[in-house]
Specification:
The protein is mainly α and 273 residues long. 70% of the residues lie in helices and 6% in strands. The protein has eight helices and six strands; from the N terminus they run H-H-H-E-E-E-H-H-E-H-H-E-E-H. The strands form three sheets. Strands 1-4 form a two-stranded antiparallel ribbon. The chain has a two-stranded antiparallel ribbon with strand order 2-3. A hairpin with a 2-residue loop joins strand 2 and strand 3. Helix 2 crosses helix 4. The radius of gyration is 18 Å and the shape is globular. The two termini are 30 Å apart. The mean pLDDT is 89.
């Protein structure tokens, strides 16, 4: 990769981060507004592909994209039909057009989250000296899955109750979300990460050298994602009562405050570690 190409990719990632940040700050109600939500997801997806190609090469960035989309759709369709692993639930029209029973944006979300979490986990454990490093092949998927679930703990209660973007058959103990959902998220994302780590090990092409800014860009993106929840709470100070599908009543303010607390001690913590 030439110096000009590297510079172009670096500038592109900063632009994508800036657009996503602007959505977070100036349109904090984006989880409830479809156009802003879809634009934010588009920025996340583009960031994963562009930023990933800087270190992995575009082919392997696409490899993660395909792995994430295929595995997440398999698990989502399986759970909607059988209740495993997330629990019984359905996606509502608020999440946009679907392929089978799963909205198109779901695969994009899984890819975006998994790419950034993979990068953060690599920062925490250290870049491997060789592609076949067993510590890297086994360790990064375990750590990265915990990072992604931290995001889901913040997001799912909002989407399941206030946003009504997905509905669980019987509600759940955590602001309308069943515990099985978080077990399912760990299983699903671990499967994506493990498949990607094996893919990298079987395609032993040396990672391209990157400077420190590469790692900071991913951390900054995750950090801004964590700020969505405080901004959302500030934009929605009035509390209303919402009910989950199990009939339990929850206060929207409590749900949002819970998301703020979790975003600080899971997402933001991962971003600054």
């Amino acid at each position: 990769m030439t110096g000009k190409s590297t510079q172009w990719i670096s500038v592109s990632t900063v632009v994508l981060w800036a657009i996503f940040t602007a959505i977070t700050i100036f349109y904090p109600a984006s989880p409830f507004a479809r156009p802003a939500t879809f634009l934010a997801i588009a920025m996340l997806t583009a960031f994963g592909l562009v930023h990933g190609s800087r270190r992995f090469g575009f082919k392997r960035a696409i490899g993660l994209f395909v792995i994430a989309v295929v595995i997440s759709n398999i698990f989502e369709n399986l759970s909607i039909s059988t209740g495993f692993p997330f629990g019984y639930y359905v996606h509502t029209p608020a999440s946009g057009p679907k392929i089978f029973q799963v909205p198109i944006i779901v695969g994009l979300i899984f890819f975006s989250l998994c790419y950034i979490a993979w990068t953060l986990a690599t920062m925490l454990l250290g870049d491997p000296a060789r592609p076949g490093d067993r510590r890297f092949i086994i360790g990064v998927p375990i750590v990265a899955s915990f990072i992604v679930v931290g995001w889901d703990i913040c997001s799912d209660p909002i989407g399941a109750t206030i946003g009504r973007q997905w509905l669980y058959a019987h509600g759940g103990a955590y602001f309308g979300v069943p515990v099985s959902n978080y077990t399912g998220w760990y299983i699903c994302t671990w499967s994506i990460f493990q498949a990607f780590s094996i893919y990298l090990a079987r395609t032993p092409v040396s990672n391209r050298p990157v400077n420190t800014s590469y790692w900071y860009e991913a951390a900054a993106f995750w950090g801004v994602m964590s700020l969505q929840y405080p901004m959302l709470l500030l934009a929605n100070p009035e509390t209303m009562v919402v009910r989950d599908t199990g009939g339990w009543a929850w206060r929207s303010g409590d749900i949002l405050q819970g998301a703020v607390i979790m975003s600080i001690y899971t997402m933001l913590a991962a971003a600054i570690t």
